[in-house]
Amino acid sequence: MTERLVSHLRYTALAVPEFQTERDFFVNYWGLTEVHAEDGLAYLAAEGSSEPFILRLRQDDKRIDLVGFAVASRADVHALADKLRAEGVQFVHEPQELTGFSGGYGFRVFDGDGRVLEFSTGYETREARKIREREPIPAKLSHVVFNSANLEQSAQWYIDHLDFSISDSLTRPDGASMMHFMRCNTTHHSVAIAMGPHHSLHHLSFEMRGIEEWMRGAGKILRSGARMIWGPGRHNAGDNTFAYFLSPAGNTIEYTTELSVIDEETWEPHRLNIKDVSNQDQWGTAQEMSELIARESFNDIDKGLFVAPPV
Question: Which residues does the UniProt record annotate as the domain VOC (predicted)?
């Protein structure tokens, strides 16, 4: 098995036009904690995570600013940078001291579709606390999912350059792939890529303490007035629960829990036909996935591809 240099998913950074509305939703309803703020910039942490923040919001036209991953050491940062440079990956900046909130040392590149990825180490962490029983707030960032107009090409970039592995795939009845769930450690997936009409954010997923907290969280968000677009249910791929909502900016966000941790030595990827409804939702509690539901997460075309964010 390949020794990966990327250890885990750290955070996602989004730009949104209605910055204050989005920030207030994530703090007042979704359950994140603002740990640092600048003019038009908010860093939001999860109480159960030692990551300094798991979501960064910035005032601007809607886009994915970047996705941050952790690397174990400076030596690994340089080893990964050398590997990507030799493979012709386009850099945003070379390894350097990071001057933003929480610091660290790392570099940024564009992935194959033009999204910005950051790889860092040595950043300041925060003291995580145990989420209380029945407390309906996220414990950590679970995973990020992208839409891609070139599914196989997009997924292969992460396999070839970052040594990610496909854990499972969703397929059409004719066998063509619709979605790949990809891992960089023993967690079933930290990134997934879905076939869509264009490149964009599909959804962000936030891990809850357990089933009780997940259900209470879903009810809390429904009472906030946000619309649930799919759920509650339990996926087959990853075996995790799902409840998808739309944020004020129109981004799909998910409460989940109990995402599988796998034995990489013995795991065999599955190809799961989406027409088998139990592959969509094992419980049968969510409405059957349809073209209308899928369209909700196509999102707006990401206009930030191959354009580095200002911070």
Answer: 8-122, 140-258
